Amino acid sequence: MKKKLLIITILFSSLVFSQEQKAQEVPYKVDVYGFARVDYSWDTRQSAQVREYHLNLWPLDEKLDTNGEDINQTGASNFLSVVSRLGVKATGPNVWGAKVSGVLEGDFFGNTQQSIGLLRLRHAYAKLDWEKTAITFGQTWYPTFIPEVFPGVANFSTGIPFNPFGWATQFRIDQKLNDKFRFSFIAYKDREFGAFPADGNQNSPVYNSVIPAMHGKIEFRNKSVLAGLGAEFYPNKPLIESNGLKSNETLNSTSLVGYFKYNNEKFHIKAYGITGENLHHLVMLGGYASYANGTQPVTYEGIKTNSVWIDIASNSKKTAPGFFFGYTNQEGTSSSVAPANIYARGINATRGVKDMWRASARVDFKQNKFRLTPELEYTAATHGKTQNDLSISGAENKVGNFRATVSAVYSF
Fold first, then answer.
1. What is the pTM of this model?
2. Where are the beta strands (DSSP E) in 51-208?
3. In terms of CATH architecture, what is 33-411?
4. What is the residue range of the signal peptide feature (predicted)?
């Protein structure tokens, strides 16, 4: 009897040990990553800015005092570490035959000017990746922000407002057509950066719309070249009530985007262009306007914005110079009637930014996982009078801001 019990005990222990060993062999993997970063910036002119001048948008229009002195011709500087970042990447056993991964990432930039220094969610998504098809769901980059094709500037702006920026909660499917071409479809809803709310409630034009934004693009990839073309349909419903009546009026905007990257051992070139209406949610110029319609609910039209940029940089592992140039403008609307209200960035009922350009030069000094980058940048903007069609002309002021930045980053 004792012999039987001993045999049963050994067999049971072996079974438990075997199961524990299999459990340990399950390919779960979690990696922590991020960086500690500090930036010093110095400006010669007051600018439209975000988070205590960490991100400068454009130099402000002239503002004359009683002596004719331009109040905005005043410098500024700051020293901040709020863009330091922390993230977690995880992989696990296959799901339905697909490789599975997930990312959770944040920084300390805050969601508003008042919350600077507090944790902000950047990415929170899972991905299922088959041989030719991949599905992503959760919060990650806008489809118009291309992770492989954005300016490598030292300024944390990553090219804002010339390049789209931000994250959105989305469902994305990527389909490989062959070894070089891939098609992507994304349906998303804005989160951090959204259309300007006409009712004052954050993101209300987005969640009031029952239809999500939809984006489709096709990409070409080989060893040296990445190129893509995309189109987007962006529906908003700014108000559900107007003039005391239920409103079914919507704002349906479209945009087109094209991008290119060439890369070899010595250098790379990136180029990007976008044109469309109501690009406010991409942290760019423009937005939309509402129009009076008698006693009926107001109607809407998007303001057209165009932007192009190019970035050229060395691929040296130790000392890598780089140059960026960007241009953007806003063309207004197709309506010749003055709007009832304007909900936009860079324009109000009297004045607006007609166009702007930025040129910057930088040098990345790198060793192991440490990088030190000084950068010189000049941004010029033309401010003018707002016309009925929301184009900008007449009584123009051309102003400029020179910014010097030093960025130090240690990655892990």
1. 0.90
2. 55-59, 76-80, 85-95, 98-107, 120-129, 133-141, 167-176, 181-190
3. Beta Barrel (2.40)
4. 1-23
